[in-house]
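**User:**
My hope is that you can spare some time for a protein that puzzles me. This is the protein in question:
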Amino acid sequence: MVYPVDLTPVRDKLKVIEERLGCSKAEAIRESIGHYAEYCKGLEVVTYRDVPKEQAKREILDYLEGKQRVWTDEILLRL
């Protein structure tokens, strides 16, 4: 596949990658995409819901039941 991309804004950065890795521009771009893809694997998307306050309280209490310790981000991601 070929993608027409204007690399003018990152030309200097690409040159540094190319020199330090000792590879072609194409290989530097492939490596960069691979690195970025690995970074993105660990990201989670949080979708907010509009729920009534009482329903939110109930869901949080249900989630906390039986747990000794919970981090706030766990609550946000599970509800």
